[in-house]
Amino acid sequence: MTGTGRHTERQLTAQLAALGVEPGGFLLVHASLRAVGTVAGGGEAVVRALRAALGPDGTLVVPAFTARNSDTSLGYRERVKGLGEAERARVRAAMPPYDAETMPCDGSLGALAEIVRTWPGAVRSAHPQTSFAALGAHAEKVVADHRPDCHLGEDSPLARLYDLRARFLLLGAGYGSCTAFHLGEYRVARPPRRTYRCVVRDGGGRRWWEYEDVALDDGDFPALGADLERVGGGVVRTGVVGSAECRLVGVAEAVDFARLWFARNR
């Protein structure tokens, strides 16, 4: 820390490099800025530090998920709990259609995701529920061709990050927010599936769109992450960035471990 009790951008960059963030890499970040602590320059300085550690050829990626346009999301179910059908219909009628350019990320993702999404030059994938935003040299390669009926599977940025030997960084965040594990759910034999529904654009208007995809469940991700650290062969690098405890893991290593773990534990 500096004498004023604040972390600096230069300090964060050095700590990220010491943790193992390498120039030219692909980095998927889940962050709690509160855990990082007070930083001179705020969340924007954290983004600059991440980009500095990745260098001019690196690519920074964040989840940019949206649930506010869905009536099959947990957030919707909590919002309408106790409401009558007419009140629920009014809530559904007011839901905005997904717009990759303007719809904010869910607040549950943390402030860093929205900072990256709105950063000049950022690009975002097309999925109306589980988009990703990316910044850097190969951002388009990561977010292109995100099939709208594939949340986090083979036709999503997660699979691209797997192929590109990306890493994910839990920057003060826990394994419960680790989206990389979801790709492992797609790769088990006969994963359970469910119906999803959300509002999308239709010309100048809006329409409901229903599709089927893998039933996503992050309820056991903390236990999965703990086992990854305990028996995963040392694939997890730990350290401190700012005031935050951090974990840096290869996406492919985490997904492969998760696939086997789900087969044994679900």
Sum up the structure in keywords.
single chain, alpha+beta, seven-stranded mixed sheet, 11 helices, 9 strands
Strand portion, in percent?
Answer: 15-25%
Low-confidence stretches: none
- Based on CA atoms alone, the radius of gyration comes out at 19 Å
What about the largest sheet? 7 strands, mixed
Could you spell the SSE succession in H and E letters?
HEHHEHHHEEHHEHEEHEEH
- What would you call the shape? globular
- Average pLDDT confidence is 95
Strands ordered across the widest β-sheet: 3-4-2-1-5-9-8
Distance, first to last CA: 44 Å
Number of helices: 11
Structural class comes to: alpha+beta
Q: How many β-strand stretches?
A: 9
User: What share of the residues lie within helices?
Assistant: 25-40%
Give the arrangement of secondary structure elements:
Layout: H1 9-19, E1 26-31, H2 33-36, H3 42-54, E2 59-63, H4 74-79, H5 85-93, H6 111-117, E3 123-124, E4 132-136, H7 139-143, H8 157-163, E5 167-171, H9 180-186, E6 193-202, E7 205-214, H10 221-231, E8 237-241, E9 244-250, H11 251-265
Parallel strand pairs: 1-2, 1-5
Antiparallel strand pairs: 2-4, 3-4, 5-9, 6-7, 8-9
Helix pairs in contact: 1-3, 3-6, 9-11
